[in-house]
Amino acid sequence: MKKNVFVFSRLSPEHQQRLRHNFNVTLLDPAGDIDAQYASALPEAHGLLGVGRPFGRAQLERAGRLEVISTISVGYDNYELAYLNERGILLTNTPDVLTETTADLGFTLLMAAARRVPELDAWVKAGHWQAPVGPAQFGSDVHGKTLGILGLGNIGAAIARRGRFGFNMEVLYSGNSRKPALEQELGARYCGFDELLGEADFVVLVVPLSAQTRHLIGRRELALMKPSAILVNVARGPVVDEAALVEALQNGQIRAAGLDVYEKEPLRESPLFALPNVVTLPHVGSATHETRQAMAELALDNLERALLGGTPRHRVNPQVRAR
Ligand code: 8YV
């Protein structure tokens, strides 16, 4: 008997077909009654596939058959891990395939904020370029500056490599553990959190969201940064206290910010929109055709292995055994 899979995100027709080969597949219809679809699909589902929706005790209590959730993301802050463990539900994710793409985007945001790309683009298109530019249009150098990475994991290291080898930047990092191999490779210097905030010209956030990292950057931390510093967030919105950030940008406490993520997504209205020194992207760290395809492939593979008796390539809670 085929097992039941509920897909709660968009999936290409090819991937739907591949899934149907092995499973009874139900696709969430975003135009329909969302709650009703979850209510009928969850009690039957052996597997869930998708991204962008929280799952914990409240959502899964009636999902009595559930064996695996395959998230199409590297981050898993949407999932109540303790509850999944208690229930013996395996969670799989999609690291590695998005590392370089997300690092590209992190560096793009850094450059765009430093050289004021969206702001100047809008300025030119509005017809304001009537004489050679002056200091009012000047940006900040990137090359040779100090890059502070909070969260020197795979993506953080890939951003640091771009800075070190592409732009001759000095790399600082802070965190719970030292990374001797990266110190060697990048000449990265391990330092205290406050020291990094005070020294870096660019502070780049790449930490996973957890109880420890929620509002890691708030009023106190922004006050420690240089007035010329630029903050880049490609991690998760709640890592930054957004109200404090707005204040810091309005007051010129820091120069600019490049943001891909927000406390509440999608971001539909925000005081950030009124600030020319903020670059706002719609959570597109991994959003290229190639990488989203690779993430979907990997998530499918994880799901198939979990439900058909193999070992998924990326298990968040490997202590839970596939049934
Ligand atoms: C997700 C991400 O695909 O992988 C992650 O953790 O943040 C993105 O790559 C995104 O959350 C989809 O909405």
From TrEMBL:
One MF term in the entry's GO annotations: glyoxylate reductase (NADPH) activity
Transmembrane intervals: none
InterPro entries for the chain: D-isomer_2-hydroxyacid_DH, D-isomer_2_OHA_DH_cat_dom, D-isomer_DH_CS, D-isomer_DH_NAD-bd, NAD(P)-bd_dom_sf
Every D-isomer specific 2-hydroxyacid dehydrogenase NAD-binding domain range: 108-285
GO cellular component: cytosol
Domain of life: Bacteria
UniProt KW Transport keyword: no
Record domain D-isomer specific 2-hydroxyacid dehydrogenase catalytic: where: 5-317
Keywords: NAD, Oxidoreductase
PANTHER family with a match to the protein in the record: 2-HYDROXYACID DEHYDROGENASE-RELATED (PTHR10996), GLYOXYLATE_HYDROXYPYRUVATE REDUCTASE B (PTHR10996:SF283)
Annotated family: Belongs to the D-isomer specific 2-hydroxyacid dehydrogenase family.
The protein's name: Gluconate 2-dehydrogenase
Native organism: Pseudomonas linyingensis
Lineage of origin: Bacteria, Pseudomonadati, Pseudomonadota, Gammaproteobacteria, Pseudomonadales
